Write a sequence for this structure.
C-alpha cells in the first residue's frame, strides 16, 4: 500500500454530473469521468485490508485492492492487465454497475467507501486513451465451433473468453445490431453507444463473428444449429415482461418499459419509426409504474422527451436512507437510491397499488390508486400487504409506462424449439456446469438465473465459457468466474 494514511487524508469524491439544464437537452452521458490525478488520489484511500471484502462481493472477483494500489502509483499498464483479467467489459460496469463492492468496502464501516467503480472506469478509459487496448487475436485456432445466442453482457463475455482460447465463435443476435440490452435497453445518457461499439470492433478484429438480424431457432433452425456447432450457449436474457392485467389495460397510452426504452434508443440512433407506433412523452403527463432502475431510466427518458409532468410509483414502501440491522455490513443493503434521472425532476410515490386504468375515447387519462400498509407480519414474519381504508386517489396520466421487471425468458422460439428443461420459475434449468438438459447446449445470464445485474451476467458468461471449453477440450485454463 503506497499511502497507509490515504483514507485519513483524502475524502471520497462522489461522481459528478453535467448540469441538469444542459443534460436534459441531449442524450449524452450525464456522468463526468474523474481526471487521472483525482483517480490516483481516490485510489490512495484503499486500505489494502487484510481481508478485503470488496472482491468477495464482486461477482467477477476483481482484484480491487491490487489495481487501486497500481493506480495510486501511476502504474496504469499493470492496472489494466489486472482489471481485464477478471472483467471483459470494464467500461460498461464502470458506468452501469451498482457497485456491490463499495457497499462491502471495509472503509465503509465508519466512513465513505472507496470510489471503486469510478476508479475502474478511470483505468479502462486511461488505457484506451494511451493505446494500451489493442486487438489480441488468438495465435492458434482449435477448430472447434461455438454458437453464442444473444449478444448482451453474458453472451459477449462468454464469446470473448472462448475466442481467447482459440475456438471459432459465432454470436447470433435477432436485432439488427449487437449488444442486446446494452444497446437497446440502456438509455444513451447512461451508456453512449460508441462505448459499446468500440468494444465490439475489438471483438470483431479478434475473430468473433457476429450474425445480426437472425433469430436462432426461427431463421436459423435448431437442427442446423446443433449440427454445425460443437457447442451452443444460449444467453437470451429474461425478456418476458411482468404486465399489469387490471381493468382498462387495453387503453391506448399504456406501454411496457422495454418497448419505450428500445424505441427511444432506436430513434436516437436515427432509425425511422412509423408515426402510428411512436411512443413520445412530449407535453404529456407521464406515470411510470415500478421503482427500480428500469423505471428510473424511463423517468430520465420522459424528461428528455419533454414530458409536462413525471410521476413514478412503487408498490413497496420507501426504503430507509441508511443501513438497517436487516442488512449489516458487508451485505448489499436495501436503501433508498436516488438516480441522476430522479435529480432531474418528477415525483416519487411509495406503497401505492394501481386498481384500474380510466380513459376517454379509448385513451388512458387517469389511474385509480390506493395507499398500502406493510406494517403487519404473517406467521413466517413476512410483511403483509393491506390496503388502507379511505385512501383511494386518482393520478392523471396521458402516458403510462409499466416498469415492473420481467418474469422469465421468452419461451416462444429458441427455448421452446430446443426443448430445454425449465425450472419452477420458468428459467432455463442447468446443471452445475451450466449445461442444459440438451446435449452440448449451455445457458448463461438472466436466461438461467433470472433477472439480475449486468455484472452477474458477465460473471455467468465467463463461468459458462469455462465449462464449455472443458466440455470441448477435456480441460481448461479459463477461470471459473
Amino acid at each position: 500500500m503506497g499511502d497507509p494514511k490515504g483514507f485519513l487524508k483524502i475524502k471520497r469524491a462522489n461522481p459528478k454530473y453535467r448540469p441538469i439544464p444542459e443534460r436534459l437537452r441531449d442524450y449524452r452521458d450525464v456522468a463526468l469521468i474523474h481526471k487521472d490525478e483525482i483517480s490516483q488520489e481516490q485510489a490512495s484511500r484503499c486500505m489494502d485490508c487484510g481481508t478485503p471484502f470488496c472482491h468477495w462481493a464482486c461477482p467477477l472477483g476483481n482484484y480491487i485492492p491490487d489495481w487501486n494500489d497500481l493506480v495510486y502509483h501511476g502504474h496504469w499498464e499493470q492496472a489494466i492487465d489486472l482489471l481485464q483479467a477478471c472483467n471483459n467489459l470494464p467500461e460498461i460496469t464502470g458506468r452501469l454497475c451498482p457497485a456491490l463492492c463499495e457497499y462491502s468496502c471495509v472503509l465503509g464501516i465508519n466512513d465513505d467507501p472507496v470510489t471503486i467503480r469510478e476508479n475502474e472506469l478511470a483505468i479502462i478509459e486511461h488505457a484506451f486513451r494511451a493505446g494500451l487496448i489493442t486487438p489480441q487475436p488468438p495465435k492458434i485456432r482449435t477448430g472447434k465451433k461455438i454458437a453464442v445466442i444473444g449478444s448482451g453482457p453474458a453472451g459477449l463475455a462468454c464469446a470473448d473468453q472462448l475466442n481467447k482460447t482459440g475456438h471459432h465463435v459465432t454470436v447470433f443476435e435477432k436485432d439488427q445490431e449487437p449488444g442486446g440490452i446494452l444497446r437497446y435497453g440502456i438509455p444513451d445518457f447512461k451508456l453512449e453507444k460508441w462505448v459499446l461499439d468500440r468494444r465490439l470492433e475489438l471483438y470483431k478484429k479478434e475473430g468473433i463473428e457476429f450474425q445480426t438480424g437472425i433469430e436462432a431457432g426461427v431463421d436459423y433452425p435448431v437442427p442446423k444449429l446443433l449440427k454445425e456447432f460443437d457447442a451452443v450457449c444460449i444467453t437470451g436474457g429474461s425478456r418476458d415482461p411482468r404486465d399489469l392485467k387490471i381493468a382498462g389495460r387495453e387503453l391506448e397510452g399504456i406501454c411496457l418499459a422495454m418497448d419505450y426504452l428500445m424505441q427511444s434508443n432506436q430513434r436516437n440512433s436515427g432509425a425511422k419509426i412509423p408515426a402510428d407506433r411512436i411512443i413520445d412523452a412530449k407535453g404529456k403527463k407521464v406515470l411510470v409504474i415500478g421503482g427500480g432502475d428500469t423505471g428510473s431510466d424511463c423517468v430520465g427518458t420522459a424528461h428528455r422527451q419533454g414530458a409536462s409532468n413525471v410521476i413514478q410509483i412503487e408498490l413497496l414502501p420507501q426504503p430507509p436512507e441508511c443501513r438497517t440491522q436487516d442488512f449489516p455490513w458487508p451485505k448489499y443493503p436495501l436503501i433508498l437510491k436516488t438516480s441522476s434521472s430522479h435529480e432531474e425532476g418528477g415525483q416519487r410515490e411509495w406503497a401505492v397499488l394501481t386498481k384500474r386504468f380510466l380513459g376517454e375515447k379509448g385513451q388512458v387519462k387517469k389511474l385509480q390508486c390506493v395507499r398500502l400498509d406493510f406494517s403487519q407480519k404473517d406467521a413466517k414474519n413476512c410483511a403483509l400487504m393491506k390496503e388502507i381504508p379511505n385512501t383511494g386517489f386518482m393520478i392523471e396520466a396521458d402516458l403510462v409506462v409499466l416498469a415492473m421487471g420481467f418474469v422469465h425468458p421468452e419461451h416462444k422460439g429458441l427455448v421452446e424449439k430446443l426443448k430445454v428443461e425449465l425450472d419452477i420459475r420458468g428459467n432455463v434449468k442447468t446443471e452445475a456446469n451450466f449445461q442444459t438438459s440438451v446435449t452440448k447446449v449451455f445457458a448463461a445470464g438472466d436466461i438461467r438465473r433470472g433477472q439480475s445485474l449486468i455484472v452477474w451476467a458477465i460473471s455467468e458468461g465467463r463461468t459458462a465459457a469455462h465449462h464449455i471449453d472443458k466440455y470441448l477440450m477435456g480441460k481448461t485454463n479459463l477461470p471459473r468466474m
In short: The chain has three domains: 6-129, 145-239+407-473, 243-404.
